[in-house]
Amino acid sequence: MKKTISIIVLVAVLIVGGYFISQKSSQSKPEPVVTTNPTQSTTTPSTQTPVQNATSTTIGKSVQGTSITAFHYGTGNTELLFVAGLHGGYGWNTSLEAYELMDYLTENPSAIPTNIKVTVIPVVNPDGLKKVTGETGRFAPSQVTKNQTTLVAGRFNANNVDINRNFDCQWQASGTWQKKAVSGGSAPFSEPESQAVKSYVESRDIKAAVVWFSSAGGVYSASCAGPVSAETANLTRIYADASGYPAYDAFEPYEVTGDMVNWFAKNNIPGISVLLTNHTDIEWAKNKAGIDAVLKYYAK
């Protein structure tokens, strides 16, 4: 009997001791740290700040009311603009390119020269992106539909306008895409998405612009009814030489009217169109080399 009682007491001691040990352990365990991805932030400054003064600006809204956001990295006075997602879901890999750049700048703040501010607009056409991915912002490649009809529809905004035919450089109401006629809108900047870019650019002193499209595999100089400027030619050469993409003075497969990058040139902003090789890959190693070369060039 005494042996049985001793065993019971021992078990009780072990249970009570284990309880207090577990309580002490749970009290000393630190709470998990939750960080907010800057691509999901609507506040300024961003809630994730490995980069000093990383901020975001809502520059406008889409036809369906989705915010179009510019993200800023660095604190310099020389602003370089990187843009993607003009063709929404059809060019979904260009937006992933921009998000990859944002991650790179977040993780490598020293990559930004002290005199530089990098601004990234990852999605100009969020309504078109949503048609293809179900999202208006960051998404996973697995979310992209494989339906070709939907992919093509994702190129246009909710008014069925090609945003990259809606800028004021040789604008036409009916533009061309490959062998197809596409809407350039009722007038230059008739669409809220192009208005958002216009308002932002005109309110800033943009030193140079890099815009991603897909697909052709090359770097194309911007110009508007005139010769390519010397600074645009320099920008084209620098990005092309570093990335390994071929360089071209102009896009010649078919006429492009109302083009955003050519509108930059019209406003004396050196600009290049970087066309990724296909519609699925971001070719980050190539583009990182081009980006780094551009940052280094303007670090003066």
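[next item in queue]
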Amino acid sequence: MKPNVILVGAGPGDPELITLKAVKALKNADVVLYDALINRSLLEYAPKNAPKIFVGKKGGKKSMQQEEINELIVRCANCYGTVVRLKGGDPFIFGRGFEELEFAKKFDLSTEVIPGVSSINAVPASANIPLTSRGLSESFWVITATTRNHELSRDIELAAQSTATMVILMGLRKLPEIVMVLQRAGKGNLPMAVISSGTTIEEKSVYGKADEILAKVEAANISSPALIIAGKVAQQQENRTPAAELKAEWLNEFLTNKVA
């Protein structure tokens, strides 16, 4: 038995968006430590006799402290062998995965990282929102809304001064402050989208301008986890022509030109 830790990205929520390499790691796991945002059906890939231990965190609820999780990873590796640390999305994006691996390395444990599909791009894509689009956005910012001191990230003000798409995580509680930042920047008419539980069967979304998004979120009863997208690309969802109509328009134009 060789103690080792494999940090695995579980993807954004849809169980089919996990990678083949991640599935292989789960099948060879001796113990799995998993977070709150992973799809529980993924645990079925792990051997039946392998312990599955929940170590997730949810806002406002009692949960295991990060220091306790770090120590548990090391204990499990020494007791069982291969620890799969299963984290939602990609483990190196706002996931504290790097901290966990650095702690494990202090105890001479071998470590590996298996990247995951991040909600940053997967959730907008599943809602047909491109983060970049020619003529609308040449870049995008990815920001966590809340800092370690529970304050609004100052990067949001910087991003609001640009033409880039803003992708904001863990920001639903800070949405009123985010809207105020956009309004101060003269962007009350900026298109926005708020998508809850993206890529899952519980997905809910609302679209609107910054000035009206708060009312729409409240009316739709949007809850965490939610992803906030602010930028011109969000208007494409609002104004999109249905696919069937688009095909009909293209076909008619093509046939007209062909006949001519």
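[queue empty]
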